[in-house]
Every structure is written in C-alpha cells, then in structure tokens.
Design goal:
Oligomer: single chain
Number of helices: 12
GO cellular component, one term: voltage-gated potassium channel complex
Protein name: EF-hand domain-containing protein
Distance between the termini: 26 Å
Structural class: mainly alpha
GO molecular function, one term: potassium channel activity
Strand order of the largest sheet: 1-2
Order of helices and strands: HHHHEHHEHHEHHEHH
InterPro entries: EF-hand-dom_pair, EF_Hand_1_Ca_BS, EF_hand_dom, Recoverin
Shape: globular
Keywords: Calcium, Metal-binding, Repeat
Length: 225
C-alpha cells in the first residue's frame, strides 16, 4: 500500500474516532461508561425507544450521543454554518468547508436546512454500524450531489477537490493541480463499466465490493464506538 494511501487511512480512522468523541463530549469508551453511571441525560427525544428500534445503537449509546449533541447544539438542531465550524476542527491544516457542505447535505435527509439529532443518528448508525451495502449506498448518496441516481465526472471532481482542500498541503505537499482530475479519471475507468459517462449505484457497489482497499476503508469504522 502506498504511503499516501496509508496516510489517508490513518486520517480517516482519526476523524471517525474524534468525530464520535467530539459529539459525545468524551475521550474514551471507558469514560463514556463511567460517566453514564454517574449522571443522567437531562434532555432526550421522546422517541428514544423508537430510535433504538430504527438504528443499531443501544439505548445507553443513544443517551450519551444525545447529551453530547445537546451540549454542542442546545437548540436540538445544527445548521450548515455550525456544522462546518465543528467539522473544521478535525482539519485545521486545510479548508474543510466544501466537503462539510456535501456531508451536511447527506445528513440533512429531509432538506430543511438543518440536521436534527434524529438525522444525525440515522446517518451515524449507517456509517458506523451498517452493512457494507448500507455504507456504500450512503457513500453513493454523498457523491451523487444532485440526487439524480448517478455520479457524473463533474460531481466526482467537486468531491475530490473538496477532499484535497480539506487534507491540505501538509498531507499532500507534492500534490499537482491536476491530481483531483486524475483521481476522477481513475475512478471512472474502474467504475463506469458500460462507458456511458456516469456511474450508477449498481456499478458503484459492484466495483467497490471488488476493490480490497475500499473494503478495508469501509471496515475502519467498525470499532470506532
């Protein structure tokens, strides 16, 4: 595996763990358990039991997540600007605003301009506890910017540029300006099976399942919580 790919995997693991810890307001799994025993959540959705049925989190995990969510978002929802501010803390060396915009759009499933605790938990459950197919479907939805059921080169180029901007020059000191476009061309060469210029969900899932590196990346989130 190339050094660049190794750095990306380490960064992805770090972000996943820090994102969870930031939202819960905790540092380790042990501290989550200990803290829960000492205190209770003052505010929680009336539908906590329903959320447990609809996600792959336990009730205890949902309560801890909700407490952290309310600490960061006292109103119970987060708008895009606040979401960008939160996300930027994970990437101080780059500009994460555009990628955070795309990520916010993926979490804001009802497209009302805000992410509620329910929106957040549903997405997090898929990312951290979903099947490989669940995660790939979620990733496809993230890349399909206009939600028309296929990924174009323009959409993937916007995504790749936002990722390179987010990682910053510290991560890719020798990166050429054409690197994002080259990445997109490699992506389409691998995934656009019928060469029609777009990648469908079927092509995306089939190609990802045959790629060992992608499958390993999907599994990075298995032990985050």
């Amino acid at each position: 595996m190339s050094q660049c790919r190794k750095r990306c995997r380490r960064q992805l693991t770090k972000v996943a763990r820090y994102f969870y810890r930031f939202v819960t307001g905790t540092l380790t799994q042990d501290s989550i358990e200990d803290d829960f025993e000492l205190s209770t959540v003052c505010h929680r959705p009336e539908s906590m039991d329903k959320l447990q049925e609809q996600t792959k989190f336990t009730k205890k995990e949902l309560q801890v997540l909700y407490r952290g969510f309310k600490n960061e978002c006292p109103s119970g929802v987060v708008n895009e600007e606040n979401f960008k501010t939160i996300y930027s803390q994970f990437f101080p060396q780059g500009d994460s605003s555009m990628y955070a915009h795309f990520l916010f759009e993926a979490f804001d499933t009802d497209k009302n301009g805000s992410v509620s605790f329910e929106d957040f938990v549903f997405g997090l459950s898929i990312i951290l506890r979903g099947t490989i197919n669940d995660r790939l479907n979620w990733a496809f939805n993230l890349y399909d910017l206009n939600k028309d059921g296929c990924i174009t080169k323009e959409e993937m180029l916007d995504i790749m540029k936002s990722i390179y901007d987010m990682m910053g020059k510290c991560t890719y000191p020798n990166m050429q300006d054409e690197a994002p476009r080259e990445h997109v061309e490699n992506f389409f060469q691998k995934m656009d099976r019928n060469k029609d210029g777009v990648v469908t969900i079927e092509e995306f899932i089939e190609s990802c399942q045959k790629d060992e590196n992608i499958m390993q990346s999907m599994q990075l989130f298995d032990n985050v919580i």
